[in-house]
Amino acid sequence: RLSCIRNNIWLASCGVLSAGLAVVSSFGLMLYCGVPFVITVANAPFLILGVGVDDMFIIIACWEKSVKEVEKSDTKARLAETYTEAAVSVTITTLTDVLAFFIGTWTAFSSVKSFCLYTGTAFIFCYVYTLTFLGAVLVLNHKREKKNRHWLTFMPVKTDEDKSKSCLYNVCCIGNCSGQSSESEPEHPITTFFERYYGPFITNKWVKLLVVLLYGAYVGGSVYGCTQVKEGIDLRNLANDDSYVVPYYNDDDKYFSEYGPRVMVVVNGSVEYWNESVRVAIQNCLQSLE
């Protein structure tokens, strides 16, 4: 927003900080409990950041909508209305994510198990910090706005535009440069689009029938795709396109795939390789296997 009062940079930054706190807390708890830290766990913070920022967007959007339901100056009522709308969505998404990752801990692969433990625990902490830390910051930010304080300096600012000053000065030192009161909040264009145009369009009976048919085709394609999934991995996909590994495996598949996998022979115990008779016995054994 082009307003030094309505600007929510600190609120957005604290939303990212909330996800960071969840990562630090979960990693600290897992390390304290002795869960091995594998290199794949280093990717977990990006997942937590995505979910944390998404939850932040939901809470802020519900906060902006709550002004229509309750008195704008009633902070407690607005926060209660915000959690009424946002907490259900945030809770459901968190539960599904946590359930998915904790199911992943049943795998026999230790690296995947550690990754799922770290990430699932981080989702729980992210949920807790979102509903506590971020909610508190939301209230503090609202109190700052009610007192017409600057978003950066927290000093009281004027809300009336000074015609003798430039627009840049009004943006930085006045509530806004449009002449509107800092308390007014126009309806967002995205909200208008979904309410006036998309909603009536998608609830048309023919459109609903088309959506059902498309969803049926999607489910059918998904079931067919599941039947075509093959277990294993092509090592060529792990290398760069210009790597020597790619032509090596191409030639290996072209010329040697008919011979099957290599057969390994293990000799248990110590072997006296300096003894000629032992070497002859090993050579005879190899010939027999061939």
UniProtKB/TrEMBL annotation:
The chain crosses the membrane at residues 9-32, 44-63, 83-109, 115-140. Keywords: Glycoprotein, Membrane, Transmembrane, Transmembrane helix. GO terms for cellular component: membrane. Residues 1-140 form the SSD domain. The keyword Kinase does not apply. Pfam families: Patched. It comes from the Eukaryota. It is found in: Membrane. Belongs to the patched family. This is PTHD3 protein.
